[in-house]
Amino acid sequence: MNEILNPLNVSPSIWLLTLFSAFLVGMSKSGLKGIGMVTIPLMVYLYGARPSVGILLPILIFGDIMALIYYHKSGRFKEILRLFPFAALGIIAAVITGNHINDEQFRDTIAAILLISLVVMLWNELRGKRKSLSDNPLFRGFFGIAGGFATMIGNSAGPIFNLYILSMRLPKNSFIGTGAWFFLTLNLFKVPFHVFSWHTITAHTFHMDLLMIPGIVAGASAGRFVVKLIPEKAYRLFIYTIIFLSSIMLFFK
Question: What pTM, to 2 d.p., does this model score?
């Protein structure tokens, strides 16, 4: 029975914290943007830098599928196709980099990417007139490669790609649908690299991820309710603070 319910043979506290991470992913995919970033340092603490990325990836894919259940008709595939080749280059660069660094360097890279993502989030909050970044090939290439690298190393490209998609000034449903299709496409593209190159997704880790699906579903349901109750400014300040503190702590673990 233990092999069925606990395939990675972790302690009860780690098992529950993994379920909590899945819950946060579900909340993030249902509208509480940013809160999913908290799961990245948490999973690093639980499993180590490199293994955590492989364990978290299928959870994110399940979350993307949840989002698409509601918004699958709203995606803009043209924008996905324009950005994907650059993102794929970033992913391949990250795979090569990941094969030549140790776990401590991997953890520091994740922390640095989180801090850069935080700066991007804050810049997007503070800037005034918003111009479409997708119309500029230079910006498109930069955001694609940077986001691809970030999503492969630490599953942390959300702020980068959300900023790019947000600049298109799409209606809310189109913004969510385009993002969901894009992240699902990228995350599926990453799976073979995790399986065959980094060996961070195995039968046991995927078994653990399947056990986390109820947490994702519960988080998605809770997120749609909670997002209506929390003041926008207070929520964003809380998320930014948690991401910043978590990133700094990763450097000193």
Answer: 0.87
